[in-house]
Amino acid sequence: MKKILSFMSGAVMGGLVGATLAVLLTPASGDELRTKMQEKAERIQSEVKAAAETRRAELEEQLTTMRKSN
């Protein structure tokens, strides 16, 4: 009985959270949605590029240090 009650309360809470998010995040129009998606994609792309550049610099520094120690 405890498992069923726990499952039911989780299902109800999940439904409420999902419904709330759907109402809050529903786009006003297709144009706005496309614009937001494009902006997010560009932001993610720039963040990934910056992280890759940072990691590359770190790896090059490690490689230089390893070469000097040999």
Give an account of the 3D structure:
This protein is mainly α and 70 residues long. The chain has one domain. The chain is 91% helix and 0% strand. The chain is built from two helices and no strands. 0% of the residues are buried.
Amount of beta strand? under 5%
Span of the ends, CA to CA: 67 Å
- Work out the helicity level: over 70%
- Low-pLDDT runs of 5+ residues are none
Number of β-strand runs: 0
For the record, the count of structural domains works out to 1
What shape does the CA trace take?
A: flat
H-E order: HH
- Structural class comes to mainly alpha
Q: What is the CA-based Rg, rounded?
A: 24 Å
Taking all residues together, what is the mean pLDDT? 85
Continuous helix count: 2
The biggest sheet amounts to: none
